[in-house]
């Protein structure tokens, strides 16, 4: 194997195989520094994963020796030097001189990023050697370099500063200078509030009676949800003990109350009624102590809110907002006002509250209230408020990550990504699809998880960008199978097949169709038995949708249409009440000129019921297609009834449902049906409706124009106005010279034969 192939094995984490191949390679190329460096990397990874201490130490030694061999053959191999310095500072206890030498050589290279690593390794050596001044000098030098290195990358700069300040604090702490240590820990926290040192630092801050700092950290711990429950309980109980002992500090008391919400039973008991009273009592006690702190009014009101006592909760929220509006106070005040007053507030308060996660959390609360609210107007208003709350969070997160401003309270990338997903979904609900796509893209770039792609695909689909929707969902199926719930695995297949069909990528759609149905038979049907009934029902629904979607997956087969019809008819043998199957067969039967079957499919769909729950466009199509089929069978009265029903449904819709194009199509068929009944006046009425639409929309002549104008000519002929008929025929041929019905009619008129003669005799 060559060196490139060996590097590929390392990148694939096949370390043992790579080591075996490297040993063979080094027998032939013993002076290849790059190969020795790669051997060191593999050995280092093996050592990190080793459970047995003796074997771990042995592997570390072989890794160190491999890096040393690389430097023996190429002293300029900087990465081997960096890795050996890392091991000397962190693993090997007897390599002080070599490590200090390595660090100096790395620093002499001039690469700022490598210099900071060398300074860190040397800092660790100085700490072990009790060379405190040298250690602090190196870490302060690192700080200076980081400010230069990451001046345009605030999140990265803050992480680097956090590490430096924390290490400086540790030096002072271990030298028993706790006040200075605490000051550096405080600076570190402000740089990166979401960090792995918060719990220990919080205990230290309480020990040092720095309650402002402790309150800041406790808030992050309470809202981030990233610490173990037992650790959170211990710290909250410790704070409770301090408060019970007489410590007076409004911020610490506030964060204690905030934190207990997630541990309600542990602090307020298992009985809901008694616990609510205890929470109210706690809130009132702190209101008496700290009447100018908004949160205690919120806390008390929330106890009442959670038991549905909105009228009692409302005054507390009004007081809280009057002092300072917390994000979650805004949503609960808004909802309590609506439930108490029976009407929606005209608006909601705004505030410069600066913690992004709390805005996001308030948006989540709003989502939960929307789910339980039945009133459509209230849901609509709450959705606007939800947008406001998520937008406020987004407006704090985005500048920190993309504009180099803001504070590290917006520095949690996964929180930002979750906010983007929820905000994007809200924008989708409000029809802002382009903006939703942008927000989902930002979120996915921050922390890629499949929900972002699924939500973005929905927005792409709604905009008619089906290829983009397919690409997002195919990416989910390629990269997120291990975390994708089964119910989504099936539904995503259904949506991809639908969009591939719309794109007329029929071969891909058919391949995916066959794949998912085979998997359903092989394992999905078995695995889904472990799911809840609701999820099983969703899977079955999507499988049925996939089967009925076969109606539109065209193939190159000579019997393509018949094959698609047979597929749905076979499905109906298993699921005789599948409304979607009848709906889709409606199209297929019509296309296959099986008009009786088309009408039968529509009648079966209507008999199943639930028509009013369908989108208006689907309701329209049901009557529209039955009317067209009746017209083909010359059942003119039935056709007219269905077309008029279509118009009635259409009138209830929005601009897309009740569009001029849709109306014109129905008018044309009504004109044709009335002609069939020899009701020439109504036929002309609807033909004229079509011409008026074309004029008002400034549409050019097309095939539809020729068709309804020809109906108009026949209606004029039926009324006995041959001159008007000839003029219309001439106009048709002027605009559409190849329109065969008009050509035939012109010939018939010229020969004074055909239908005109018959009609004249009829009138006589």
List keywords for this structure.
single chain, 764 residues, mainly alpha, 39 helices, 77% helix, disordered C terminus
Written description of the protein model:
TPR repeats lie at residues 294-327. InterPro entries: TPR-like_helical_dom_sf (IPR011990), TPR_rpt (IPR019734), Ycf3 (IPR050498). This is Tetratricopeptide repeat protein. Keywords: Repeat, TPR repeat. This protein has helices at residues 3-11, 15-28, 33-49, 53-73, 78-90, 96-107, 112-128, 132-149, 154-174, 178-191, 198-207, 211-224, 229-244, 250-260, 264-268, 272-289, 294-305, 310-323, 327-341, 356-372, 376-402, 413-429, 433-446, 450-462, 466-479, 486-502, 506-527, 533-549, 560-574, 579-591, 595-608, 616-632, 636-650, 660-676, 680-697, 703-718, 722-735, 740-750, 755-763. By secondary structure, the protein is mostly helical. Helix 13 (229-244) packs antiparallel against helix 14 (250-260). The longest helix has 27 residues, at 376-402. Mean pLDDT is 95; it is low at 753-764.
Query: Which class of secondary structure composition applies to the elements?
Result: mainly alpha
Fraction of residues in helix: over 70%
- The strand count comes to 0
pLDDT < 50 stretches? 753-764
- What Rg, in angstroms, do the CA atoms define? 37 Å
Question: Globular, elongated, flat, extended or rod-shaped: what is the shape?
Answer: globular
Mean pLDDT: 95
Count of runs of 4 or more consecutive helical residues: 39
Main beta-sheet annotation: none
Q: State the distance separating the first and last CA atoms.
A: 100 Å
Strand content of the residues, in percent?
A: under 5%
